[in-house]
What we know:
- The protein has helices at residues 3-10, 14-21, 25-32, 40-53, 59-66, 86-101, 114-126, 143-151, 174-187, 203-218, 235-246, 260-272, 306-322, 350-358; strands at residues 71-77, 105-111, 132-135, 155-158, 169-172, 193-197, 228-230, 254-257, 282-287, 300-303, 330-333, 336-338.
- By secondary structure, the chain is α/β, with parallel strands linked by helices.
- The strands form two sheets. The chain has a six-stranded parallel sheet with strand order 2-1-3-4-5-11, with helices on both faces.
- α6 (86-101) links the parallel β1 and β2 (105-111).
- It is elongated, with a radius of gyration of 27 Å.
- The N and C termini lie far apart (73 Å).
Amino acid sequence: MSDTQDKERASVTISDVARHVGVAKGTVSRVxxxxxxxxxxxxxxxxxxxxxxxxxxxxxxxxxxRGRQDTIGLVMPLGRGRGADPFLAEFIDGIARALDDLNLDxxxxxxxxxxxxxxxxxxxxxxxxxxxxxxxRTEVDxxxxxxxxxxxxxxxxxxRTRNAEAYSWLDVDNEKAFxxxxxxxxxxxxxxxxxxxxPIDLNFACQRLDGYRKSVGRHGxxxxxELEVEQPLTxxxxxxxxxxxxxxxxxxxxxxxxxxxxxxxxxxxxxVMGLTVGKDVTIIGYDGLPVGAYLDPPxxxxxxxxxxxxxxxASMLIAEIEKPLAPPTQRLVxxxxxxxxxxxxxxxxxxELAAFLRH
Length: 359
């Protein structure tokens, strides 16, 4: 079809269809909106004319009529390594696929600070750009949540905050996963276990660190500041965290990481230091990113489907928009430990590992 034909079809209006069939414009509108009070014969004639003329209802007009934009907003918090986040990339892909199936759009914006991110949400609301928001990487006391609750604007959070009972969210039981992670490596024979945490203003990072601490204490193992480090959620953060932990007088023989990205960086750093991951040092990640299966050795991780989470949270938000007075929907799911090659019994004691690293 030529550009001229495209423009001609795009200019066809509902009035053109009505004149072509010889009916009122309201009759055409009722057929297009699936009203059942129009005869089958008239309905068939109208639908045939719509196809022949190439009429496409104006999405802008439909949105104005319904007071909806058919667009979901997501403002990405950047800074401290949060921009390069493979889990969020998979998660956003899941959102986009789900919205595409519903003929809806996803609008992504960015912000670099807590003040910027609230202003970004306020700006999109004021300009009527979106029908609701999806929040990611929630903080313990999240200004976005407080702002949107005060404005009574639809949103769903991936993760909880201090006032989690007040709104809808989807979250993974982060604490439970890291309790199980410590139990797993303790059962393998590790007595000194390290933790690379994410920034502690992030609620999930606090939950994962709490799970680690509870399980270490429950097993009577050593809890020590030198066995816990806080780093960005990146490969660089994981590499630096591994360097810090392995520089301890008695280094850990197992390291739990808050994300797969950190675990990948920690594995690479172990290689640089001459250590064999899965033997000299056990590394366990969290996210279940597909790339982890292709590392050498493949990464043992707690798996949650980022794409599936994206699709689920998109559906939850659509329901929230459709029924704004319904009670909050809150879903807590569990991550699953996927064993591969980066974990195993310790080949060296912490003392032997320390001596090896010194030399």
